[in-house]
Design a protein that fits this description.
Largest sheet: 10 strands, antiparallel
Helix content: 25-40%
Oligomer: single chain
Low-confidence stretches: none
Strand content: 25-35%
Strand order of the largest sheet: 4-5-6-8-7-12-13-11-10-9
Order of helices and strands: EEEHEEEHEEHHEEEHEEHEH
Mean pLDDT: 95
CATH superfamily: HIT-like
Length: 340
């Protein structure tokens, strides 16, 4: 049903010393999207300044006095939700506070804070605080859905450090709901529905079943969440967490949110072991009444936030549209397994 296509080609070059060598490049086709990525193994030999070990904290890591998300400034410096959506202005859940994004990306765009230490190094967040942040996102999205039933295209994301797009160091999640889908949401809805019509089964369950049979990219589990290295990664060291048979926000139990947070922290600890300090996280929901698309969390490491670090995206990704990474997903899975 799903095609896991890969081919290897070779570039023949003459080294400066006169030796002729063949450099392998593997092209993989993403079984979900059909997009191709390239694994350029020889790039793994390149020197990468600033990524030899985990960098020092950013120079403003202790600057709590200027952070609007820290508890001393939170009430005065952050916006409030519209009264018809949430009369109290901000949503509180344990260690988490949620309020609207001052610079929104859509009709319903919010920020869910967790862990009030201002700067939390990768892989060191408090699990219970992380769970509170996720549950606050859930409560907000369910509230939005009750308020505006047409805002069915939802997501929770995270940008850790400026290299991943984060504008503030203080740990937080972004939460989004809109009537208009993003390109990714539009594609996934169509692809999952097409797969269900053709085969009578769900897309991500079939993907997970195929990866389970293969085994090389399986990493481990946290509760019912199943974690694996993406077959055709679209980011460096890309890891997926799949929650089989769960297709709606309201179906997720608190224990499953906790298991998701544990898997995210496991992934962060793996990234930390690689000397990396930035990452992105994403989780998409379609609350349109369909039940084709199961939940799939995606994490990918980003270039380090440190002086003189090379970006993880080159002209190949930006202008040609193919991810060019240098680590085989099978190696990613092998390296990540000890963190589960």
């Amino acid at each position: 049903m799903l095609q896991f296509k890969q081919e290897t080609l070779h570039s023949r070059i003459v080294l400066p010393g006169g030796q002729t060598v063949r450099r392998p490049i593997e092209i993989r086709t993403h079984p979900i999207t059909g997009r191709t990525c390239r694994i350029t193994y020889s790039r793994g030999q390149e020197r990468e300044p600033g990524a030899e070990s985990l960098p020092e904290p950013p120079p403003f890591a202790a600057d709590r006095d200027q952070c609007p998300f820290c508890s001393t400034r939170l009430a005065a410096d952050t916006p409030r939700l519209a009264p018809d959506l949430w009369p109290q202005g901000r949503m509180m859940r344990g260690a988490s506070t949620l309020f609207p994004n001052l610079f929104p990306y859509g009709r319903y765009s919010a920020v869910s804070l967790f862990d009030d230490r201002h700067f939390v190094e990768i892989g060191t967040a408090d699990l219970h605080s992380y769970v509170d942040g996720f549950l606050n996102c859930r409560d907000y999205l369910l509230r939005v859905l009750s308020h505006d039933p047409a805002a069915v295209h939802m997501a929770i994301t995270q940008n850790h450090l400026p290299s991943a797009g984060g504008s503030l160091l203080h740990p937080h999640l972004q939460v989004q709901a809109d009537r208009t889908p993003t390109n990714h949401q539009r594609f996934l809805r169509s692809r999952a529905a097409e797969h269900r019509r053709q085969w009578g089964t769900r897309l991500f369950s079939d993907y997970l079943a195929a990866e389970t049979r293969d085994g090389r990219r399986r990493i481990g589990a946290t509760g019912p969440w199943q974690w694996l290295a993406a077959f055709a990664p679209e980011g460096f060291f890309e890891i997926w967490g799949i929650l089989p048979q769960v297709t709606a926000l309201g179906q997720i139990t608190e224990a499953q949110w906790s298991a998701l947070a544990q898997g995210v922290l496991n992934t962060q600890k793996f990234y930390r072991s690689l000397g990396r300090n930035g990452y992105n996280f994403g989780l998409v929901f379609l609350e349109d009444g369909t039940d084709d698309l199961e939940l799939c969390a995606v994490l990918t490491v980003r270039s380090n936030y440190a002086p003189w670090v090379r970006s993880d995206f080159t002209g190949f990704e930006v202008m040609l549209g193919d991810m060019a990474t240098f680590s085989a997903p099978e190696a990613t899975a092998e390296q990540a397994r000890p963190f589960w």
